[in-house]
Amino acid sequence: MMRHKKNRSSDRSVRVADQLQKDLAEIIPRELRDPRLGFVTLSDVELTPDYAYATVCFTVLNGDPVESEQALNDSAGYLRNLIFKKMRIHTVPSLRFKYDNSVARGSEMSKLIDDALKESPASKKQSEQ
Q1: How far apart are CA 81 and CA 43, in angstroms?
Q2: Is the pTM of this model over 0.85?
Q3: Eight-class DSSP state of 63
Q4: Neighbour tally for 76: CB within 10 Å
């Protein structure tokens, strides 16, 4: 079965993004000593079609998301250089870091749902029995 050229390109894009995420997850805690940086977890890497830019989405524990984002973006050139030495691809994308608030929003929504369930009439009837 023949595959379309577009699929091969997107497969490669996914592989490159996954490898970037894996390598950055190893490099960031080992190489960056910025006090503004909290405990960072990379959640996604989005590549432009020409591989020129990668937007790296991250979450942060015990740290300020804004300061962590600034610290990561300040170190983007250094991180790109380390990635260049590690990966065997023609073009290593320029890195842009963006805070991913989906985990925080999910936790917030879960808390709101739990609070609403505690206050619902059905839960009050069960607690009375």
Answers
A1: 21
A2: no
A3: S
A4: 15
